[in-house]
Every structure is written in structure tokens, then in C-alpha cells.
Amino acid sequence: MGPVTFAVLATLLVASALTVVLHPNPVKSAMALVGTLFLLAVVFVFLGAHMIAALQVIVYAGAIMVLFLFVIMLLNLQAEALDLDARRGGGAGLRVAAWLGGAVLAAELAWLFLHVTLPPVAAAPLGYGGAVAVARSLFTDSALPFELTSILLLVAVIGAVVLGQRRTS
Amino acid sequence: MWADVGIAAVKSIAVLLMVLNMSVVLLWVERKGSALIQDRIGANRANIFGGILPFNLGIVNTLIADPIKMFTKEDVIPAGADKLLHFFGPFLAVFPVLVTFAAVPFGDVLVIGGRTIELQVAALDVGILYVLAMSSLAVYGIVLGGWASNSRWALLGAIRGSAQMISYEIAMGLSLIGVIMTFGTLDLQAIARAQGAHLWGIIPAWGILYQPLGFVIFMIAGVAESKRVPFDLPEGESELTSGYFTEYSGSKQAAFMLSDFAEIVVVSGLATTLFFGAWQVPFLARDGWHLPGGVTLGMPQLVVAVLQIASFTLKVFALCCLQILVRWTLPRYRYDQLMDLGWKRLLPLALANVVVTGIVIVLVG
């Protein structure tokens, strides 16, 4: 990925991520999050991780975010319902503290960018992000975490079914 | 370098035009086919020069008249609609469907002047996942279009549509696992090439021979994804006027219609690639015919490529016609029947298909 491509993608990504947080309309906020996830997938494509990019779009942009939108639409959340004034309020002291904290974080980030140089990284082998490479690492090195995750998901599914059951009594 | 860019551009435009043209032809096939099924004459009133000509130009007229009619209609934006999202809805519906075909190979290779051109826009090693990813994005057009219209009917259609598409996406994805296991790759062109073999030298080794159940599940889920009868609850014109695109008119409504027809083409293209030998013509290899019994007939490469593209187009069109036949034969499902079919029938069947495929692969080796 060249510096120009990265700059364009990163700018779009940050702008889209900021829209998620700052936009008062929940539906547009959710759509901005879809855009963010999609752009992140594009970054993965440019890094050669096609498999991860595809999964990112299928799972996050295509499934989870649809459910988010579904809930937002069902509850019919309006911009006013989020009570923007309450978010902006909180007294002068809190606001000053928030600004100070933000400034310290920004200064730290700037210092890191200017003073820390990362050690050179060896070029990744060809096809390291393809389906074969990901599957091999998933089912050899990370076999145990993979299986444990699947059990966790199973528990979550059973829990959801139990909670979603209609009470007959 | 510029030659490569040019070739890529030509391939992209060719595939895009193929999908668009086939969608418009399907519009006519749908009109005339439904008339045939219901014993009517069908669309016959599009006549240039007010009927001065002694003959009716039929298909040509309908193909030109329908789009012109749609694109010159007034574009109404309902009061209280979210203008931005209302505007973007049709785009988000059309875009994912049109880009899906990029990963679908429409031929083997074309050799021109020593240059070997792959007849596929994007040679992705995760082709099937790319297709699933793009089809999973198609739901946003419906959801946003329905929500932004500020209409009860549109919202109901959008909610029905998103629930239906998520449900059937699962069955669709699982039905493809069997194919992936059989061919051992996610690359659509590799799957297409693997289907060029012949069982016992006479039967083309197409995917449907290995995965008949997978094909049935995929086709049902595919029809559900394109939101047409018997799965047209998001539209449901007898209950919801026009469902999620009730409040759209003119070219934006045309965009929603186009996305539905293009979805038919995409589903057929995928089914062809995975289950019906993609662009393969039985016994036709890159250098000519290899008939059973050791007879070989040499053919120029260009002719072979053209035959393969024609074979792919023909198969896709046949499957499109099958979908239109289904659409005009069956009545609409009730909502609980729709969910039952998706979750309680197709999903367990697809899972069983995966398990059985795995066992057979282990036993056969």
C-alpha cells in the first residue's frame, strides 16, 4: 500500500469514524459505522489480507450492522430522543477536564509519532492473508482458542434461545 | 501497463453490460412469459411512429419503451422523508448486485497476439466469500429506502426484507460450504476449471452431480434473496402497496427494479458457475474437441473462447427463465411459513448436507 493510498483511506476512515460518534441521527450514525467497517475491509485488501477483508464485510458490515439498524428502526429512535443537551451539559468543570484530558492524549500521540521509530518489519510471505494461510494458522496454532470460542458462541446461542422463549405459564 | 489497464476496463464494461442487458431482456421475458403462462397477449402496445409501420417491433420496442418511460417519470420525494438516505437507497440496492459479477468467470482464457487474457474481471482467491460479502450488503438499500421514505408500508417492507434476507443468507452460505468442500477452493475460476473433467469419460463432472441438495437449497435461498414471488413479502403489493419502494418513483424505482432483475442474473450466474460447469462446454478443451472414444478435433482458440462465453450466457439465461417460471407459478408464502422454511427446513438440510459431504469426502478420499 503506497503512502497516497494510505493517506486517502485513512482520511476517509477517520472522517467516517468521527461521523459515527458525532452525528445526532442514530440511523446515519449506524450507516457511518457500516462505511467505517467497509473502508477497514478495503485497508485489509490493500494489505493482502483478502480473507479477513471478506469476513469483515460478511460478519460486521453485512450481518451485525443490519441487526443494529433493525433495532434502531424498530425502536424508531429519533435524534431528539438522544437528548443532545444532556450530552453537551455537565458543568464547566467537567468540560474543562474533558478538554484537558483530550489535549494530554493528543500531545502524547504527537510525541509518539515524532520520537518513536518502529523496528523494520520483514516482508510478509506471499499469500499470507489468503484463505489457506488463515485456515492453517486457525486450525493448527490456534486450534484450542478456536474451539473455545465456538463453545462460547454455543453458550450465547442457547442463552439467547432461552431468553427469547415465550413464557407459557 | 496501459494495455493491461485497457483490457481490465474492457472486461469490466463487458461484464457490466452483460448483467444490465440481461436484466432488461428479463424484463421483457417476464412480461411476455407471464402472459404466456396466464393465457394473455402481454406487452404489445409499444409501437414506434404510432402504428404507421405494418409490423410491431415487439421486443425491441418494449426494451426501449420501458426504460424511457421509467426515466422520464416525475421523481417524487415524500414529505418528511430523510432526503439524503432516500436518495442513496436505490444506489445502495443496485451497487452491490452489479459488482458481484466481477468475481464470476465468464470464460476460460482468450489468447490474442501472444497475450493470455483471463476471462474474469477480478481473479480473487476468495471469490465465493467476495460474492457472499457483496450480497450481504444488498440489504442496506432496502432498509434505508424503506426507513427514509417516512411511510408505514415502506417501513414494514424494509423490516420484512431485512429479516428475510438475513435468514436466507445463512442457508445460502451453508449450501455453498458443500461445494467448497467438494472442490477444495474458494476461487470461482478454479471451481469452473475443475468441472471440465468427465466421469467415466462421458459424463461432465459438473457440481450438481456432487451437490444436488446444495443446488436446490442455493436456488431457493437465491430466489428469496432476490425478493420475488413466492418470497416477495418485502414488496407484497396486495398488502403493502409496493413494500420498501412504495414511495419511490421514476428512475429511482427503476433502480430498485433493476437491482431485483440483476439479482436474478447474479444468482443464475453463481448457480451456473458452481453447479452447471460454469463456461464449460462438454468435451471442449482449450485446443478443441476431445470426444469420448479418443476422437479429437482441433479448433482455433478464439472459436473455443466464443463457444465458452456463449455456453455460459445460455446456461445463465436458462436459469433466469427457471426463476421467472417459479415466480409466475407459485403463490406468496405467509410470513411464518417463510421463516419456518428458512430456519427449520433449509438450515438443518444445509447443515446435514455439509456433514454428509464431509463423510463422503473422508470415505472416498
Describe the structure.
Chain A folds into three domains: 1-82, NADH-ubiquinone/plastoquinone oxidoreductase chain 6, subunit NuoJ (Four Helix Bundle (Hemerythrin (Met), subunit A), Up-down Bundle), CATH 1.20.120.1200; 90-118; 126-169. Helix content of chain A is 76%, strand content 0%. Chain A has helices at residues 3-22, 26-46, 50-75, 84-88, 91-115, 131-139, 143-164. In chain A, helix 1 packs antiparallel against helix 2 and helix 2 packs antiparallel against helix 3 (50-75). Chain A is extended, with a radius of gyration of 21 Å. With 365 residues, chain B is mainly alpha-helical. Chain B has one domain (2-364). Chain B has helices at residues 2-37, 59-71, 83-100, 127-137, 139-148, 152-183, 188-194, 207-210, 212-225, 237-240, 250-275, 301-327, 335-364; strands at 109-112, 115-118, 198-199, 203-204, 284-285, 288-291, 295-298. In chain B, the strands form three sheets. In chain B, strands 5-6-7 form a three-stranded antiparallel sheet, with no helix packed on it. The longest helix of chain B has 36 residues, at 2-37. The termini of chain B are far apart. Classes of the chains: A mainly alpha (169), B mainly alpha (365). At the A-B interface, helix 2 and helix 3 of A face helix 4, helix 5 and helix 6 of B.
Explain the layout of strands and helices.
The complex is a heterodimer of chains A (169) and B (365).
Chain A: H1 3-22, H2 26-46, H3 50-75, H4 84-88, H5 91-115, H6 131-139, H7 143-164
Helix pairs in contact in A: 1-2, 2-3
Chain B: H1 2-37, H2 59-71, H3 83-100, E1 109-112, E2 115-118, H4 127-137, H5 139-148, H6 152-183, H7 188-194, E3 198-199, E4 203-204, H8 207-210, H9 212-225, H10 237-240, H11 250-275, E5 284-285, E6 288-291, E7 295-298, H12 301-327, H13 335-364
Antiparallel strand pairs in B: 1-2, 3-4, 5-6, 6-7
